[in-house]
Amino acid sequence: MNTTPQPDPKDRPARLTVGVVGAGRVGPALAASLQLAGHRPVAVSAVSDASRRRAAQLLPDVPLMPPAEVLQRSDLVLLTVPDDALPDLVAGLADTGSVRPGQLLVHTSGRYGARVLDPALRAGALPLALHPAMTFTGTPVDVQRLAGCSFGVTAPEELRLAAEALVIEMGGEPEWISEENRPLYHAALALGANHLVTLVAQSMELLSAAGVAAPDRMLGPLLGAALDNALRSGDAALTGPVARGDAGTVAAHVTELRRHAPQTVAGYLAMARATADRALARGLLKPELAEDLLGVLAHGTDGTEGDARCARARVLGM
Question: Whole-model pTM?
């Protein structure tokens, strides 16, 4: 349920023609969502076969054309290209005269705010940064997932209401992010979501190696509960051998991982050290148990005695 106050009707965008430059997983889904709100997708730029298929599935009958022609047809343009490609794309569109005065130009990069659109702003465009905090599959399910999804919104103050109104029309929840905080905001999301996929995939592989027939079925309830507890309680939800200070168990884990999946050892040790630090700071891990645990973690990376002394110093400094 969307709990964000609805904007006054005079602040809502008029029904707009919508174009998409970059038919990756995000752009077609956002355009389809805007279509449900009454806007009209009119053009899509897509290069690869996969992007063409996505456009055809989510935006049937919307023609494919080069980026410059997408801009010519559209009141609202979604620039949904990879982060590293965005600055050059914006500069190129502005330099070739493709940008029209009064045109809403929206990018969906988490890393950048509105300033990356300055070349288009100088050409008269209206710059908006609307980043959906959601993972996308490139299928119609993405449109449904936008309901209640938070969007990181950055725009000039005079466009703030229009930016928030567009997010609400897509079923999302606008969250204002300052220009200078965009990289930190994006790092936080990547840390939580992208690394989670890696951790879960590694866990499933290890369970399969241990003989578990249905790793997904085993992990589903456990990870669901862990995520719910973490969102509700933060560090107070920490459990397991690291938070308890079970150095012997952690050492056994490292030994088994080195034997069966050496590529996972570095990640395990890094996360265990971070978990130990947070458990210590929260008072969940007793200092007298933490010294042995941190010693195991220091030597787990082929550390020296100096590493162990550093671990002890960390404990004594708590």
Answer: 0.84
